[in-house]
Amino acid sequence: MSYENEMRDRIGRGENTGERLDIPLLRYMWDSSPLSFLKKESYHDFFKKISVLNSFTDNEIRLFTGFLHRREFMANEMIFKQGDSGYGFYFIFSGSVNIFSSPAPSEELGDFVIKLEKHQYFGEMGLLEEFNRRSATVTAAENTVLLGIFKPDLDRMLQVYPVLGAKFLRETALIMANRMGQITREIVALKKRIKELEQRV
After folding, report:
1. What is the mean pLDDT of the chain?
2. 101 secondary structure, DSSP code
3. Record: fold of 3-74+85-93+114-128+144-200
4. Three-state secondary structure call for residue 82
5. Which residues are paired to 80 by β-bridges?
6. In the predicted model, is pLDDT for residue 38 greater than 80?
């Protein structure tokens, strides 16, 4: 079973996942302070480097982290599989992930698509589409830490902090729009290339 399916089942049964970020206010403020000399990157610093969250204030980032789940993955561990019901949106806090275009990932079979690394994100369709099915399989490329937000977390955010929830939804929609724009540009480039090849034949 993939991690995402496991989380969906546990949350559906009302079980405590035990993986949600719970950072005391004073600790969060210290970690985000310029006076903090910690070598490791704080959650605040991490999210400040995520381009789609640039519009979030420091306090909004602090509130946002309270809705996230932290999970450590071993190399080659499956996060979700193609065809799974979409449920979460993930930020790569450390490490990297591989994306494959089939349910059974194999670089040898040529279904490797792309590698995503720290500060990148994936899975946004799982939050926005009601009956989303994952279009790819994602596995940890190495020991990796992900910060994930699931549909029930987003619903709760919209109830407790509606302005923050709406802001996050807007940013998530922008991510999707940018991805669709990129796909459209790639399709146009491919059509142009095919036409050029046809003219040569």
Report:
1. 81
2. S
3. Jelly Rolls (2.60.120)
4. coil
5. 138
6. no
